[in-house]
């Protein structure tokens, strides 16, 4: 009887290896050969699951997005039913910020993916759709007129804080102080 293979598990193993390579050596070091070595599998196996580097990158970007959603869902669930909008936004953003080593590695890879998407329209389209949904969600929680613009500003602040965190310019505490100050302006009183 043939061995039953979990294809999603294998693809995820390869995507995890890709993310480790990218976090440690940068996205430019990602190749089928390097990813295969990191995953402990043959280059042929990587090619079986991903015909091109672009396919491998698209899957890994989806894994990063899915893991972010899991972190956010867990953090928001801990708030209980119907948390106040300010607390919901703060919790949501804090869950996405690279405030610890593990999320820092993921953020480095996500940053590399942004650069990758900058020159690949198909990858950029997927990221643009995610950003549009995120902006709409945040805008729905903000008070007053101009919520859409305020949501865009808040997401830009989140991205900037993420850059400052992964580059060591801010500590987690400093980033949260800045986030709280901005939220205080959006939710006065």
Summarize the structure in words.
With about 190 residues, the protein is mainly α. It contains nine helices and no strands. The chain starts with 6 loop residues before the first helix and ends with a helix. The model has no long low-confidence stretch (mean pLDDT about 90).
Number of helices: 9
The largest β sheet comes out as: none
Rg from C-alpha positions? 19 Å
Percent of residues in β-strands: under 5%
| Termini Cα gap | 68 Å
Briefly note the structural class of the backbone. Answer: mainly alpha
Uncertain regions spanning at least 5 consecutive residues: none
How are the SSEs ordered, and which strands pair?
Layout: H1 7-25, H2 32-39, H3 43-49, H4 53-77, H5 85-96, H6 101-117, H7 121-141, H8 147-166, H9 172-186
Helix pairs in contact: 1-2, 1-4, 1-6, 2-3, 4-5, 6-8, 7-8, 8-9
